[in-house]
């Protein structure tokens, strides 16, 4: 039977830039077209879609909210726990929702915390340290080899990443740590740079989740990326493409799918998620991060997978929603 499905989201167009915000401050938020697409898809599956909006809208509407479940893709307002805000409010009100809970979302937004869990589960991830002091690294660095990459610790959508993020010496490293700390008001995550190729693996469902065919990242027409990586500028250009499964050799494909599943389970991901990898020249995969709130935009990975599987985008949303309805005993 059709359900009433609330939709929580943050619109890129609603973001109010504050003084000293970096130009990519609203990068994680969704375009209105993506929200329209998800809402239309929910309706085409026979449900009623109620657009709620962001966490502030949710709080205002809470007293009169009549929904069976909420489809949450909200990124939240600010801070390390921003993605947990909507799930925690919904949990307090006993309203079921699609996707991971506040703990998993908070944990995965913090890449350093995620990596500590990966290490404890023996899941390979690049060597790293986190710091907010550009001068204190030399001792830690002894165990790590240049080139390194410097990222903000708690951001997504390649925020803070430019050609300068890959550093080859101490001077560049210090400069880049200083830039991240000043601009993004958080510590920097410094990792060994994995030269090679890049993949992402999406999963849908629970007990067990379905591991979807891996997607390879092509930059400037090349699958062998070497030192190329995904910068904020590249995301917004046609120099980045997703290529589904075909050219990946079978043993590597199996390794990626197996590691994606272990990562999904390690952080208790629910209903859907996406695990990002770099693979070195000797075919060793490393997990970079897991996204329990991956983009559902029509230009993103889920559409690439749908095309490869010869199904419509709607089918992807149906599977995610179904997984949540079953988990919540609403099916
Ligand atoms: N250790 C690394 N070695 C090589 N490239 C890396 C490394 N870490 C990050 N990158 C590059 O930077 C990109 C973004 O990094 P990461 O996935 O950790 O952050 P993100 O901003 O959360 O990603 P997303 O855009 O998927 O939300 C990767 O897709 C990859 O191209
Ligand atoms: Mg990523």
Keywords summarizing the entry:
single chain; 331 residues; alpha+beta; Rossmann fold; Dna Ligase, domain 1; D-amino Acid Aminotransferase, Chain A, domain 1; 3 domains; six-stranded antiparallel beta sheet; four-stranded parallel beta sheet; 11 helices; binds adenosine-5'-triphosphate; binds magnesium ion
Strand-helix topology:
Elements lengths: L3 E5 L23 H13 L3 E6 L1 H7 L7 E4 L12 H8 L4 E2 L3 H8 L1 H10 L7 E4 L6 H4 L6 E5 L13 E2 L2 H15 L3 E5 L3 E9 L5 E2 L3 E5 L12 H4 L4 E5 L5 H17 L5 E9 L4 E7 L9 H9 L3 H15 L4
Parallel strand pairs: 1-2, 1-3, 3-4
Antiparallel strand pairs: 5-8, 6-7, 6-8, 9-10, 9-11, 9-13, 11-12, 13-14
The chain binds adenosine-5'-triphosphate and magnesium ion.
The site of magnesium ion has 3 residues, from strand 14.
Name the shape in a single word.
globular
**Which second-level CATH architecture of the largest domain applies?**
2-Layer Sandwich
Order of helices and strands: EHEHEHEHHEHEEHEEEEHEHEEHH
Count of distinct structural domains: 3
Provide the CATH top-level class of the largest domain: Alpha Beta
Query: What oligomerization state is this entry in?
Result: single chain
Mean of pLDDT: 92
Remind me, CATH topology of the largest domain?
D-amino Acid Aminotransferase, Chain A, domain 1
Associated small molecules: adenosine-5'-triphosphate, magnesium ion
Rg over CA atoms: 20 Å
Task: List how many beta strands DSSP finds.
Answer: 14
Name of the CATH superfamily of the largest domain? ATP-grasp fold, B domain
Task: Report helical residue fraction.
Answer: 25-40%
Strand residue percentage: 15-25%
The helix/strand class is alpha+beta
């Amino acid at each position: 039977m059709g359900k009433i499905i609330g939709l929580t989201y943050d619109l890129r167009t609603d973001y109010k830039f504050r003084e000293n915000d970096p130009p990519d401050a609203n990068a994680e938020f969704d375009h209105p077209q993506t929200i329209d697409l998800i809402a239309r898809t929910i309706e085409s599956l026979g449900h009623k879609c109620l657009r709620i909006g962001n966490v502030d809208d949710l709080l205002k509407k809470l007293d009169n909210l009549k929904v069976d479940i909420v489809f949450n893709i909200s990124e939240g307002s600010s801070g390390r726990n921003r993605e947990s805000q909507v799930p925690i409010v919904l949990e307090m009100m006993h309203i079921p929702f699609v996707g991971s809970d506040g703990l998993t979302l908070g944990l995965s937004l913090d890449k350093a915390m995620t990596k500590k869990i990966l290490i404890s589960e023996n899941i390979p991830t690049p060597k790293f340290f986190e710091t907010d002091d550009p001068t204190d690294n030399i001792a830690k660095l002894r165990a790590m080899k240049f080139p390194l990459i410097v990222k903000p610790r708690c951001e997504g959508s390649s925020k803070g990443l430019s050609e300068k993020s890959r550093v080859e010496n101490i001077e560049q490293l210090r400069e880049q740590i200083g830039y991240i700390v000043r601009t993004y008001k958080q510590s920097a995550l410094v990792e060994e740079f994995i030269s090679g190729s890049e993949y992402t693996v999406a999963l849908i469902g629970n007990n067990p989740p379905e591991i979807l065919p891996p997607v390879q990242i092509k930059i400037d027409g090349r699958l062998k990326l070497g030192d190329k990586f995904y910068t904020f500028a590249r995301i917004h250009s046609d120099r980045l493409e997703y290529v589904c499964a075909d050219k990946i050799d079978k043993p590597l494909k199996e390794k990626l799918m197996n590691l994606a599943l272990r990562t999904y389970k390690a952080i208790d991901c629910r209903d859907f998620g996406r695990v990002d990898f770099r693979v070195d020249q000797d075919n060793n995969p490393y997990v970079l991060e897991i996204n329990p709130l991956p983009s559902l935009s029509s230009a993103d990975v889920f559409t690439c997978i749908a095309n490869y599987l010869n199904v419509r985008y709607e089918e992807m949303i149906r599977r995610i929603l179904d997984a949540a309805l079953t988990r919540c005993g609403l099916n």
